[in-house]
Amino acid sequence: MCGIIGYCGPKPAGPILIQGLRRLEYRGYDSAGIGVLSDGDVAVFKKKGKINNLAEVVPEDLPGTCGIGHTRWATHGVVNDANAHPHADATGKIVIVHNGIIENYTALREKLEEDGCVFASDTDSEVIAHLLASLYEGNLEKTMAQALTLLQGTYGIVALHADEPDTIVGARNGSPLVLGIGDDEMFLASDVTAIVAHTKQVVYIEDGEIISITPSTYHLTDQRRNTVDKKIEFISWELEEIEKDGYAHFMEKEIFEQPDSILRAMQGRIDHEYATSHLGGLNMSRAELLNTERVKIIAAGTSFHAGLVAANLIESIARIPCTAELASELRYRNPIVERNTVYFAVSQSGETADTLYAMRELQRKGARVLGICNVVGATIPRESDGGVYIHSGPEIAVASTKAFTSQLTAFYLFALLIARMRDMSYEGGKEFVQALESIPEHIRSMLSRVDTIRSLAKKYAGVADFLFLGRGLNYPVALEGALKLKEISYIHAEGYSAAEIKHGPIALINEQTPSLFLVPDDALRDKVLSNMKEVKARRGPVIAVCVDGDRDVAEVADDVIEIPRASTVIYPFLMVVPLQLFSYYTALELGRNVDQPRNLAKSVTVE
Ligand code: AGP
Fold first, then answer.
1. Interhelix angle for 402-421 vs 301-313, to 10°?
2. pLDDT tops 90 at residue 28
3. Quick check: is 2 catalytic?
4. Which of 71, 248, 381, 506 is the most exposed place for a label (fewest CB within 10 A)?
């Protein structure tokens, strides 16, 4: 959701904040603002729209070396200049930025208004500024501690006071916050992408903690306000990884990175001698793995789709029951936690509120929850009982692509591990490993022939509705294809099991509604082919993604996207790449903002 940055040091704060906000823009891009402290005043600039709009109104020679900034993803209050952050108290001396939702803001606002406060915005966040002002007695850090006892909800807050030069105070509950330690300069940010250009030394702030920084010092206190001394960690990402590197968009770059990112997810984890995998981060003994009777996966969005593929695979090759469920639903249905069950919380960002809270609920009931995450040091991997980092490198485009295939890779390695402890023979293991290791090369060959997909995107960009249909392991890939298309092109798209269309969706078929079928040469191919014919019989345009040279499919379909013939188990990897490209080129055709589609944000830290 919203992006936050704070800077305290010897350099002019304005350009550092603006540059940090540009790197955070993927977290929210409704509006942006900064507040910079100078000579006992805080100069605030905020603007609806992209960071460029803000940059235009911030003077180049803005004085001040301590300031805070924010990119907004609106929750309370429409998108306009007034609702953009920072927010200030009536005197303009206390200025805050906030990520999260203050759930008791109505009650707090009423009370503050009774006491004479005049509000300038419709946001929940503004109450924080007025509340701090009403409690302030000369020490912002202490005031923050008092204010937190009155705030309910989720927050990453960063604040400054005009009377306390060179000081920024931050607090966290449920929304990420990280301290960056530089040479005589300190940073606070909602994620490391904002500060990696300046420092790689970080301390992750936990829920309940308050952090106070000056250019050369930091002071961290826990929930009881005792000083804490935490380990400094190092960011392994390079600055180049968060730049476009010659590609037109981050999404394009991330799609094309997949041969490498999948390889990174596998590296050092395959045991060729015993045709199995090593996943040391699971923190589980062989006996515990052997005693595992069930696997349950929770996630949201694209990560949920990876979980659905994994559930099908794990059950079929490892022969243990496995299901995937939306984290947002699990949390509120009082789930039964069974013995000998391993849960996976899957999240690219590791900060998704729905997944994080569901994980905490499961842990509270005594479950072991493992994380499958990309962002090192994010909340889910920190709080999980073990897990697998997918090492995709930063994923900046809002539409997730390379994280999906790397999440799959992690699950395939886990399935192999468990399967080899049960029914899968050494020979079976070897075949599986071979198939897995062939994925990067297959994807590389597909990425060298994208022209068909680009011209199909041109042909179909004008349609209003689209169906994506697949079966078995590729049914969740159809869901993912539909999600990708709708989120970046805004074309209405639905994913279904190809078998399901006759139970209702076929009513939608007409000459204007194309169906994209995933038809690999697996056990369900002929059944999907029949479903394709049913759609053709009703004059529905059909695009098929099938293996090279599948004539039967080509005869029925209007258009064909070919993928290499491979082991059936890896088709989800090969099927999803054309779908990612199809939505990317369609969005380009329609002139959409590919990396920052409307209404979305990369990391969804509110429920
Ligand atoms: C993917 O393209 C989406 N933007 C979205 O569905 C995303 O996958 C979902 O919000 C979950 O995010 P996570 O993997 O960071 O938890």
1. 30
2. no
3. yes
4. 248
Closest by alpha carbon to 147, among 218, 45, 225? 225
Query: For ligand 1, is residue 398 a contact (CB within 6 Å)?
Result: yes
**Residue ID of nearest Cα to ligand 1 atom 10:** 301
Neighbours of 511 (CB within 10 A): 9
Pick the catalytic residue: 2, 8, 322, 546?
A: 2
Q: What is the pTM of this model?
A: 0.89
Which residue has better confidence, 449 or 183? 183
Lookup result for tokens 């920052």: 596
- What is the distance between the alpha carbons of residues 156 and 529, in angstroms, rounded to a whole number? 51
Cα(563)–Cα(544) distance, integer angstroms: 10
CA distance 387 to 374: 11
Question: Which 8-state DSSP code applies to residue 256?
Answer: H
SS (H, E, C) 345-388: EEECCCCCHHHHHHHHHHHHCCCEEEEEECCCCCHHHHHCCCEE
pLDDT digits over 48-85, tens only?
Answer: 999 999 999 999 999 999 999 999 988 888 999 999 99
Q: Looking at residue 500, what is its pLDDT?
A: 95
Decide: 605 in ligand 1 pocket, CB within 6 A.
no
Question: Average model confidence (pLDDT) for the chain?
Answer: 96
Long-range CB contacts (within 8 A, 24+) of 239-244: 239/196, 239/197, 241/393, 241/394, 242/23, 242/193, 242/196, 242/394, 242/396
C-alpha Rg value of the chain to the nearest Å: 25
What pLDDT, in 10s, does the model give residues 343-398?
Answer: 999 999 999 999 999 999 999 999 999 999 999 889 999 999 999 999 999 999 99
Q: Is 117 a catalytic residue?
A: no
In this prediction, residue 377 carries a pLDDT of 86
Say which residue the tokens 């022939």 belong to: 449
> Cα(581) to centroid of ligand 1, in Å?
18
Contacts of 138 (CB under 8 A, 6+ apart): 163
- The closest residue, in CA terms, to atom 9 on ligand 1 is 301
Question: Domains along the chain?
Answer: 3-235 (3.60.20.10), 245-446 (3.40.50.10490), 449-592 (3.40.50.10490)
In three-state form (DSSP H/G/I as H, E/B as E, the rest C), the secondary structure along 301-345 is: HHHHHHHHHHHHHHHHHHCCCEEEEEHHHHHCCCCCCCCCEEEEE
For atom 13 of ligand 1, which residue has the closest CA? Answer: 347
